[in-house]
Amino acid sequence: MEYKKAEEILPKELLKEIQNYIQGATLYIPKETHHEWGEKSGIKDKLHKRNQLIKEKFQQGNSIQSLANDFYLSEETIKKIVYKK
Known about the structure:
By secondary structure, this protein is mainly α. The protein contains five helices and no strands. The chain has one domain. 54% of the residues lie in helices and 0% in strands. This is Mor transcription activator family protein.
């Protein structure tokens, strides 16, 4: 997050109106659109696809231990993935 001086960005009229509500404090103005974790980089979709593949392999008879070795994850993580509803 980058800090900018309001007086350098906002019109004087708008700045005066904002000062009626708050003065001398930091004010956060959020973006119009918010991206969920992993949406922008694509990692969320990659993890979802990986987890689906793990579930399919488990249903085909692969053991928790072999899946953990194949996907470089702990057995506990594999259990969380395959037993999640």
